[in-house]
Design brief:
Elements: H1 2-6, H2 13-29, H3 34-45, E1 48-51, H4 56-64, H5 66-87, H6 92-96, H7 117-124, H8 134-137, H9 142-151, H10 159-184, H11 198-216, H12 219-223, H13 232-245, H14 251-263, H15 268-298, H16 304-344, H17 356-360, H18 380-385, E2 400-405, E3 424-426, H19 433-440, H20 451-461
Parallel strand pairs: 1-2
Antiparallel strand pairs: 2-3
Length: 470
């Protein structure tokens, strides 16, 4: 009864979703028949007609600021292209100007480094190019390690000063990592199986000398306390720095870590590792729990056919509401993007309109509706890419319509005469019920506590059969 009364009064997509989700949970666990749920869900699954609240003032503002919107779109495109050109390709040849066919860094990875000549010039500021031995060549980088120690003493800072200090620490860790990373990138891809070669052995000794220099300057003692920072980015940089310091099982660095663990009462490293692993474990447990609850909910009723039909109706309603929300957003932003796409993108070829006789022959056409226009999504290429709008991969067996009522009362007051608003048809493809159940159970969590990086650090700590760290 509540759904039948409140359903026609709802016009916001979020309220519609809340009502559908609420009824989908309450009705199955109660003694009410499933037919009550289906009658309410059919209201949302069979088509939604809501008045568009766009006003003449908004359309006037769109026309007034259309030139600025077009210029801003060009500036954003220009900025993205300039950033890509300035940073260069993600290759060792483009970043370090050496003939090595390897990627420089892993984009969006835990050990990612900035690209571009600006960052490499910053790295070269801490390298003495006139020296050949690593102990003297990379001696200026010891200033960055000292900066990490100094920043630990500043604990009571304002919010702005703390953010600035965190940014400085992150940049210090990145430069320290990049110095070793640049030397490691000079190795061939299969260096691990060719360590007996003179060239590769010489390069590995050079990297070990650089790691030993960091270790002699107290890199372990001055960097490990930063793991206790509340900033996750700093913790990630510390873990990445430890990972590159333990590259190729450096005995000196491993011994320094062991000495630090025995000499200090603070268990910063182990607490940080435990917290990261706990965060990852909780994410995995929550994901499995949600999957188990979802699977148990599908197996509760003995009548699988009713459950299947009820689930299909609920999913149809939710997908139709989502399609309505996306269509509403397109209608709201159509005025802003009209002139931008006209100048930046080639317009699609115009198609000849159908004659009135052909429209009258359509099966869904009724007499007297010749003047009404049913406009499908304007940009078909964008609509085909975004399956959630036009072809969501749903289970509907017929076309569902989202109808917008144009506010014609104040149309003469608008500055834009060509509003271009009308009815929008949302088509959804058929899909099996098993596929839907699999899709809805695919829960993903992005924040995994950098568990992959944590495990990599722990593996390199014990690399080389270091029994004490093991």
């Amino acid at each position: 009864m509540f759904g039948e009364i409140a359903g026609p009064l709802l016009f916001k997509p979020q309220h519609m979703k809340n009502l559908v989700n609420c009824l989908a949970v309450i009705v199955p666990i109660s003694n009410m028949p499933n037919s009550n749920l289906e009658s309410v869900m059919e209201r949302f699954a069979s088509g939604i007609t809501v008045e568009d609240t766009s006003s003449a003032i908004r359309r006037g503002n769109i026309e007034y600021y259309s030139a600025e919107v077009e210029l801003n779109a060009k500036f954003r495109l220009y900025a993205r292209n300039c950033a890509a050109v300035f940073a260069g390709h993600n290759t060792v040849a483009a970043q370090l100007k050496i003939n090595v066919k390897r990627p420089y860094t892993i984009i969006d990875g835990d050990e990612e480094l900035p690209l571009g000549d600006e960052f490499q010039s910053l790295v070269r500021c801490f390298v003495d190019t006139h020296e050949k031995k690593p102990e003297k060549k990379f001696l200026p980088a010891a200033k960055l390690i000292e900066q990490l120690s100094i920043s630990l003493e500043y604990k009571r800072l304002t919010e702005a000063a703390r953010l600035e200090m965190d940014e400085l620490n992150i940049k210090c860790f990145q430069v320290l990592r990049a110095i070793i990373h640049n030397e490691e990138r000079k190795l061939p891809e299969d260096w691990a199986t060719r360590t007996s070669e003179n060239k590769i052995s010489k390069c590995l000794k050079f990297i070990a000398g650089l790691q030993n220099l960091y270790d002699q300057k107290g890199a372990m003692k001055k960097s490990l306390p930063h793991l206790a920072s509340r900033n996750d980015l700093i913790a990630k940089e510390v873990l990445a720095f430890l990972c590159i310091m333990l590259f190729n099982a450096n005995d000196s660095v491993q011994q320094s870590m062991l000495t630090y663990f025995f000499s200090t009462r603070e268990e910063v490293f182990f607490m940080a590792v435990r917290d990261r692993m706990a965060l990852s474990t909780n994410s995995i447990k929550e994901k499995r729990s949600l999957q188990t609850q979802h699977e148990a909910k599908l197996k509760e009723s003995s009548d699988s056919k009713k459950i299947k039909n009820m689930f299909m109706v609920t999913l149809m309603a939710l997908r139709q509401i989502q399609a309505y929300e996306d269509a509403m957003r397109q209608q709201r932003l159509s005025g802003w993007t009209r002139k931008t796409t006209k100048s930046c993108v080639k317009p699609p070829p115009k198609k000849k309109p159908k004659k009135q006789k052909e429209v009258d022959k359509m099966p869904d056409h009724k007499p007297g509706q010749g003047r009404e226009k049913t406009i499908k999504t304007r940009n078909k290429k964008v609509a085909e890419k975004k399956d959630g709008v036009v072809s969501i991969g749903g289970i509907l067996k017929k076309d569902k319509e989202v109808t917008f009522v144009n506010p014609l009362a104040k149309e003469n007051e608008a500055l834009m005469q060509d509003v271009g608003e009308g009815d929008m048809t949302i088509k959804m493809e058929e899909q099996d019920f098993d596929t839907i159940a699999a899709d809805t159970s695919a829960f993903e969590y992005r924040n995994d506590g950098y568990i992959e990086l944590v495990l990599k650090v722990m593996a390199r700590m014990c690399d080389g059969q270091n029994k004490h760290l093991q």
